Amino acid sequence: MLQHVKSLFSGAYSGISRDVWLLSAVMLINRSGTMVIFFLSVYLTEKLGFSVQQTGVVMACFGAGSFTGAFTGGKLTDIIGYRPVMLISLFTGGTLFMLIPFIHSYLYLCVSFFFLSIFSESYRPANMTAIAFYSKPGNYTRSISINRLAINLGFSVGPVLGGFLASISYDYLFYTNGCFCIAAATFTLFMLHNKKVHHVHGQSQKQQIASPYKDKIYLYFIVAVFLYALCFFQFFITMPLFYKDIHHLSERQIGLLMMFNGLIVAVVEMILVYRLEKRWNVYRTISIGGLLLAATYLCLPFIGGFAAFTLIIVLVSFSEMLAMPFMNSFMNLKSSIASRGQYAALYSMAWSSAQTALPILATQTIANFGYNTLWMLLAFILIIMTYIIRVVSQKMRAAAAN
Q: How is residue 349 annotated by DSSP?
């Protein structure tokens, strides 16, 4: 048994390039300081006294900036390379985070979070492009999972540290987040360099479409990504309000739930991907991830308490591990070296669009119809998402046959 477990870990982690490990180290440093987003809704309502609707608008501005940053970051990545984009994003984003505690005006906060998000989210397409360049043929999905492992290890540290800091002063959240961003930028400056590669993952250059905006199959896929992201973000954007207002969990308990999600993904995902990547196709894996998240929402009206929410986080974590790495793999499969930044940007923009729309959708639904209506709506959206993935699968098979 012990030998089998050792073999699983050895197989899961073998063959990953040194550069991917270095890139993941940057992500670990950066995400260890990511704590603001988990407590932002509580900060705006309790510390600044904003209404739920105002809070939704501020967070939507953050999402709108994320959308803009993803588009700009993807374009710049294809022009100047991923390393300069990563450096600009981390240094500028870190500085802006540390300025937020001095801004208390509703209007100025909307504007500030919009520009902060532009800089911080331009990192995402540059990061995904770097992983594609650093990974070896045949292990891209596991390289993505290594990066996600770093993200989730960081997320396991960030919420707990954030819960502790929030119990003292919310201002410390922003200062610490900014410091970690600048630390990640410093590591990038000295350890990572642009790399030119000549291989293309997945398919030949002739089979690939230069622009994602002309790739109809990819556009169908992006709609599915948007719908999944819309439902997934609920657990990290407005779910803390549900934990606190309805079930009266403390900030530290909320932080522990977020930490638990990060730990599960960090420990399990690499082995899960290693076991599934050659057994299940990407469409099946993504669909099961979507249906698992839908089942999670259907359970929420009937449970309560910290222990029950811990079990819910387990289900959310498995949904995430099944859906997200293979979504990234499909994105990489459809892109070419010359357009990888733009494909990654459109993928990131789907997540950013969801981050923009979700706070408005969720807060307005909660205010007018209650939490249970929101759960049913999100479960229905996820069922639609799995149907679109089925359509994408059919179109890909048809394209391969021609």
A: H
Alpha helices in 192-277 (DSSP H): 216-232, 234-237, 239-241, 251-276
How many other CB atoms are there within 10 angstroms of residue 308's CB atom? 14
Please state, in angstroms and rounded to a whole number, the distance separating the CA atoms of residues 159 and 173.
10
**Residue 95 C-alpha from the chain's centroid:** 22
Integer Cα distance of 217 and 282 in angstroms = 14
Q: What is the average pLDDT value for the chain, to the nearest integer?
A: 82
Is residue 160 over pLDDT 90?
no
Greater model confidence, 130 or 356: 130
Per-residue CA distances from 53 to 116, 354, 359, 364, 376 (Å): 21, 17, 9, 7, 21
Domain residue ranges of the chain, discontinuous segments joined by +: 17-191+212-401
Q: Which residues of 208-238 are buried (b: 16+ CB within 10 A; e: fewer)?
A: bbeebeebebbebbbbbbbbbbbbbbbbbbb
What is the SS3 string spanning 143-208? HHHHHHHHHHHHHHHHHHHHHHHHHHCCHHHHHHHHHHHHHHHHHHHHHCCCCCCCCCCCCCHHHC
Instruction: Check: CB of residue 285 under 8 Å from CB of residue 326.
Output: yes
The single residue listed with the structure tokens 């022009």 is: 79
The predicted pLDDT at position 201 comes to 44
3-state secondary structure of 359: helix
> What's the whole-model pTM score?
0.74
Nearest to 212 by CA among 203, 222, 204, 202: 222
Q: What is the DSSP letter of 17?
A: -
CA dihedral 387, 390, 395, 400 (to 10 degrees): 170
Q: Would you put residue 305 in left (φ > 0), alpha (ψ -120 to 50) or beta? A: left
Domain 17-191+212-401: which CATH number of 3.90.1150.10, 2.60.120.260, 1.20.1250.20, 3.40.50.10420: 1.20.1250.20
Averaged over 209-229, what is the pLDDT?
88
pLDDT confidence bin for 1, thresholds 50/70/90: low
